[in-house]
Design goal:
With 210 residues, the chain is of the alpha/beta class. 58% of the residues lie in helices and 10% in strands. The chain has a five-stranded parallel sheet with strand order 2-1-3-4-5, sandwiched between helices. It is globular.
Length: 210
């Protein structure tokens, strides 16, 4: 674990932000900074699962991570270029975890995607409405609870019922999500981590451009 990752895992807000500023000033790759913070966020999640951290700690870590991405964003504009596409993303109905979702959002934004974040515990119809309003062609659904698997299927089915399933590519992700869950839900792909989600978005756009 790097110093930055450890500071974030320990919820040292000011020290994290100062370290990020120092690394940016020293010319460090912004994407590497995001990766180190991702590792710190992963440790936060592990501490929560081990009951060392509480929900308030998860909220605080997410707030720190959000500030980090704000600091980094201006340094990525040149790399990312113009908007590459729109992605609607949210955590499945019945699930309130958002650490993984927020990391995926940060990585997508770093690579030039416009992200519409619907938050957590998102109703299936809200995903459909967001796609219609934004014109997004990619949907990402995060799910860390097995009891929320039916909500993944309900969300995909909502796009079918709305008659726009063929207009969107749907990727799902989260620790318990695998290929079997993808088949059950009717999604297009599984993103094993944040970088995988970026790569999937890139592949989806290639399909749309044909």
């Amino acid at each position: 674990m790097t110093l930055l990752g450890q500071l974030l895992a320990d919820l040292q807000e000011e020290k994290v932000l100062n370290e990020v500023r120092a690394q940016l000033a020293a010319g460090k790759d912004p994407l590497q900074i995001i990766e180190e913070c991702r590792q710190g966020m992963q440790l936060v999640g592990e501490r929560f699962e081990q009951k060392e951290y509480f929900v308030s700690d998860l909220v605080m870590s997410a707030a720190i991570f959000s500030q980090v991405t704000e600091l980094i964003a201006p340094h990525l504009k040149g790399e990312a270029g113009g908007p590459k596409g729109k992605v609607v993303i949210g955590t499945a109905k019945g699930d309130i975890h958002d650490i993984g979702k927020n990391i995926v959002i940060a990585m997508l934004q770093c690579h030039g995607y416009e992200v519409i974040d619907l938050g957590v515990d998102v109703e299936p119809q809200k995903f459909v409405d967001a796609v219609r309003e934004s014109g997004a062609g990619i949907v990402g659904i995060s799910c860390l609870l097995t009891v929320a698997f039916p909500a993944l299927k309900e969300t995909v089915d909502a796009f079918v019922e709305a008659g726009i399933r063929d207009r969107v590519k749907i990727m799902i992700g989260g620790a318990p999500v695998n290929e079997k869950v993808k088949e059950y839900a009717g999604a297009d792909a599984v993103g094993r981590d944040a970088m995988a989600a970026v790569n999937l978005a890139r592949e989806f756009l290639k399909v749309f451009s044909k």
